[in-house]
Each structure stands twice: as structure tokens, then as C-alpha cells.
Amino acid sequence: MPTQSQSPYLPFGENKTAPWYGKDILSVKQFTRDDLGYVFGVAHEMRGMVERVGTFDLLKGKILANLFYEPSTRTSSSFTAAMERLGGSVIPISEVKYSSVSKGESLPDTIRTLECYADVIVLRHPETGSAAIAAKAAKKPVINAGDGVGEHPTQALLDTFTIFEELGEGQIDGMTVTMLGDLKYGRTVHSLARLLSLYNVKINYVSPEILRMPQEVMDEVAAKGIPQAEYSTLAEVLPQTDVLYVTRVQKERFENPEDYEMVKGAYVIDPEIMKAAKQEMIVMHPLPRVGEISPEFDDDPRAAYFRQMEYGLYVRMALLAMVLGKA
Length: 327
Ligand code: CP
Hints:
Blueprint: H1 33-53, E1 63-68, H2 74-85, E2 89-93, H3 107-117, E3 120-125, H4 130-137, E4 142-147, H5 153-167, E5 176-180, H6 187-196, E6 202-206, H7 215-223, E7 228-231, E8 243-246, H8 257-263, E9 282-284, H9 305-323
Parallel strand pairs: 1-2, 1-3, 3-4, 5-6, 5-8, 6-7, 8-9
Helix pairs in contact: 1-9, 2-9, 3-4, 5-6, 5-9
């Protein structure tokens, strides 16, 4: 790992001995606290480079295949922007119905095809475990951009980077993070709870009864000695909260539409509710939002969800550089 005074970039060639060279990024379970320090150090430098020069040629000649079987605005476009800001190019496949997937091609065969043309593959897919299946078929690195209700590791990395950049890395230990909304189907909170368990945080879960955090995730977090508590109302925990992480109720994952109707709109963050919160805290959301945060709150300095999207660009630039041996 480079020291802080060294540049993490390699101007010429690939460093095949770099720790993340050629690796898949499938789960936050792959990362240690030291790894995160390294990723965020590179992401912070990427931020500086984008602010200073906009685009540079670190990944010139490299190609990313951006393969999305599910809708996406942020993840898909930020990976595209990340590759292009690093001087590389992108094969975009976001309408799989226009690809050979619509003729019945299997995921492993699609992956084997794309790696003939690309150096790295980003995959979003509706089935949990699909990223691992893709990685098994591929010789090139596969990055999980969301697999069903499983994980969304790059989102959790950018979420944690957001907390560091907004509140200060040195402040993370001792923080209270409150996750609100659809904790059952929201893959971003599954990944984030696991990742935050590397730090000495307290995690609160606030959700309707039918959308509680899965026991499997809570057990993994508990095994790290992290205090966790479940609530049904936000008022009980808002005044102590340093990071409020709001999620959308994921309509598309409900088997019974009546259940969705029962819980949609269960929590709405607005300026009135936020009077009970600290002044030095942030509100995050992976977005898209569909009513969980009132637009009237958007101008509050604590509303970090639009800045959070921008941090995603820098983290994804860092990850692409790492797996391609340039950081
Ligand atoms: N946060 C997130 O994953 O957004 P998209 O679905 O737009 O990619």
C-alpha cells in the first residue's frame, strides 16, 4: 500500500502485483478496514484530479462492458463517466432486450462474449448470486452493480466515502447510523450494514414490521460486536442520529401488491420532522426517491443525497483503476 506522500497511480503499464489487480468486486465482505482506507485515499485523489483537470488518461485504451439487466440511472452512468474520465471507453448494454439475451443466451455465455471485447465487466442483474456466477465464467474482473436483493457493494463503498468526506474520517468511530424504510429488499442497506461493521458504530434499523433487516445480515453485524437495535418509529432515535440513511420501498420486489400499498409512505422526511435532528448530521439516500424525502428538505445543508451521487463517481474511478492495475 502506498504511503500518503506517494502517488497511488502508475504512469506506465499495469502493476500486476497490485493487491486488487484482476480481482472481482462482488461483496463488501472482501474489504478490510485497511482496504477501505486505500480505496478512499485513491477516490479522494480522483476527486482532486477531476476538479483540477476533468479527464485524464490513466485507463487510456481500456474498455468497460456495462451490462445492466435492471434499470439504473446513477450506477450505470457513473461507471460510464468514471471510465471516460479516466480516458477509457465503454460498451453500454442497458437494454438487454436488444441483445442476444432476448434470444435466450445464458448469463455465463454473455459474460464470455463481453470479455472478448472488454477489460472489465460491470453487471447489474435481478437475481441474487448472479455476479458470482458471472465472475466464475469470466477471466476478466467482474464488478457487482447490484444482484437482486443481495448486495450492492460499490454503493456501500460510496456511501461510506460520503460519510468520511462529509463528517470526517476521524469521526466515524462512535457514530450512530440510522437506516430507515425498506430494509428487507434494499440491497444497499444490506451491504452498508456489513461494511460499517468494520467501524465502532451503532446501527439503528427503523422499518415497518414486514420490511425488517434480514436476520442473516443482523447476525453478521452482531458477530463483529456492533450494537444494533430495531424500531418502528423514527422519533425514538432521530435526536441521537449522525447519519440518517433513507431508502425507497422497493415496489418491484413485492410478491403481494397489497403489502406494498400498506407500507408505502410509511416514513417521509421533511423540514418539520428534521427539527428534532442534530444540526451536525447528514441525510443520505441511494436514490431514486419516490416520496420518502420531501423536496422541501433538499436545500437543507444536512441533505447529502445529491452530493452522495458525485462521491460515487470518484469511488468508481478508484475501483476501475485498482482492478486494472493502475492504482
Ligand atoms: N443508487 C442506485 O443504485 O441508483 P440506480 O438504480 O439509479 O443505479
